[in-house]
Write a structure and sequence with these properties.
The chain is α/β, with parallel strands linked by helices. It contains seven helices and eleven strands. A hairpin with a 6-residue loop joins strand 5 and strand 6.
Length: 241
């Protein structure tokens, strides 16, 4: 088991400097009062590419978990994803609860989902699964907001500690409100609105999926359909929110 003494020092450092724009750490929210060293933590990580989103789009999602649900929430814009995973691995313990939100472009290539986590960098579902399996936490949820991301769900079906959610399957793009990027993703807008209203992750997913099934939906820029959200079928039952 990893010691949490260094965690508290790092979190205090991040919060103290959170008013300064920092690469990979655009925001951090603290729990009041700080948890004792041996208490499980609720950690949320919001990872997004600057060519699809801005902090003003992502920060409200983090606010919901950071302020309303007791999470310590981090925002990462165009990160070195390998370094982010290594840092998280040093922070988390087996009894912590981890929630990940990813927003970036995606594609399905040679049977594998590829996530573009910055304008110039990407990572496939095989390597993503490798990093997630390094975590000790037994309660991990991921919302992968990306086109053609359905295979990412399939990659985790063999382990029920994971709740993996995507706005679409392997054959369809995901929808956003704007005619161009940066733009808010529509599935995420619905999902986080339901979480903000008090729903747990699975209920919010199911409601957002049902909302996406309404056809046509008139956005400010025309009509869209995004009717193929996916999630892991076997899941151990943590509510997360």
């Amino acid at each position: 088991m990893k010691s949490k003494k260094n965690k508290l020092v790092l979190f205090v450092f991040l919060i103290f400097f959170s008013v300064i724009p920092l690469t990979n750490y655009a925001a951090c929210y603290w729990i009041e009062p700080p948890p004792p060293p041996n208490q499980p933590l609720k950690l949320a990580f919001f990872i997004y590419a600057s060519d699809v989103a801005t902090e003003s789009i992502i920060r409200p999602y983090a606010d919901i978990l950071g302020y309303d649900h007791g999470y310590i929430a981090f925002l990462y814009e165009d990160p070195n994803l390998e370094s982010v995973f290594d840092s998280i691995d040093n922070l988390e313990d087996y009894n912590d609860m981890l929630f990940f939100y990813f927003y970036g472009h995606g594609e399905h290539v040679d049977g594998q989902f590829i996530f573009d986590y910055s304008p110039a960098l990407d990572m496939g579902s095989i390597m993503l699964r490798y990093h997630f399996d390094k975590f000790e936490a037994e309660s991990i949820a991921v919302l992968m907001e990306s086109c053609y991301s359905g295979e990412f769900v399939d990659r985790f079906e063999d382990n029920d500690k994971y709740l993996i959610m995507t706005p679409t399957d392997i054959n369809h793009p995901a929808a956003a409100y704007g005619p161009s990027f940066p733009s808010e993703p529509i599935f995420s807008d619905f999902f986080w609105s339901y979480v903000d209203s008090g729903d747990d992750a699975i209920t919010a997913f199911n409601k957002a999926k049902a909302k996406n099934a309404e056809e046509p939906y008139l956005s400010p820029y025309g009509t869209w359909t995004n009717r193929y959200p996916q999630k892991t079928a076997f899941y151990s039952g943590y509510n997360f929110f």
